[in-house]
C-alpha cells in the first residue's frame, strides 16, 4: 500500500492538510496555482516536494469539493490521512 501523500496532523499547521513530511499545506499549493504558477514550477518553490505531490494536493482539493462531508470528518478529527 502506498503511503498517503496528503496528511492531517493536529500538531502540524493547526491540522491543515499538508504534503507528508512537510509543513506545506494543500492551501499553499492552491494559492500558488491561483497566482499563476504552473504545476511544474511549484516544486522549485518548495524544495523536497515533487510534481506528484502537487497533483495529489489538487486531487485532495477536488475530492473535498465533491464530498463536503469529508471536511466535517476532518474537522471533527475522524480522519488522520487522506489518499
Query: What string, H for helix and E for strand, traces the elements in order?
Result: EEHHHHE
Approximate helicity band: 40-55%
* Estimated structural class: mainly alpha
Put simply, the count of helices is 4
CATH superfamily: Winged helix-like DNA-binding domain superfamily/Winged helix DNA-binding domain
Strand coverage percent: 5-15%
Briefly, what CATH class?
Mainly Alpha
Q: For the report, how would you describe the main beta sheet?
A: 3 strands, antiparallel
Q: Which terms summarize this structure?
A:
83 residues, mainly alpha, Arc Repressor Mutant, subunit A, 3-stranded antiparallel beta sheet, 7% strand
In words, what does this structure look like?
This protein is mainly α and 83 residues long. The chain has one domain (6-82): Winged helix-like DNA-binding domain superfamily/Winged helix DNA-binding domain (Arc Repressor Mutant, subunit A, Orthogonal Bundle), CATH 1.10.10. It has helices spanning 26-34, 42-45, 51-66, 69-75, and strands at 6-7, 18-19, 81-82. A 3-stranded antiparallel sheet has the order 2-1-3.
Short description:
By secondary structure, this protein is mainly alpha-helical.
List the helices and strands and how they pair.
Elements lengths: L5 E2 L10 E2 L6 H9 L7 H4 L5 H16 L2 H7 L5 E2 L1
Antiparallel strand pairs: 1-2, 1-3
Helix pairs in contact: 1-3
Amino acid at each position: 500500500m502506498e503511503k498517503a501523500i496528503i496528511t492531517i496532523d493536529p500538531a502540524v499547521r493547526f491540522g491543515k492538510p499538508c504534503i507528508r513530511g512537510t509543513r506545506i499545506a494543500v492551501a499553499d499549493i492552491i494559492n500558488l496555482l491561483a497566482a499563476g504558477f504552473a504545476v511544474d514550477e511549484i516544486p522549485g518553490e518548495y524544495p523536497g516536494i515533487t510534481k506528484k505531490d502537487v497533483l495529489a494536493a489538487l486531487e485532495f482539493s477536488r475530492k473535498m469539493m465533491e464530498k463536503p462531508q469529508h471536511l466535517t470528518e476532518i474537522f471533527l478529527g475522524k480522519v488522520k490521512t487522506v489518499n
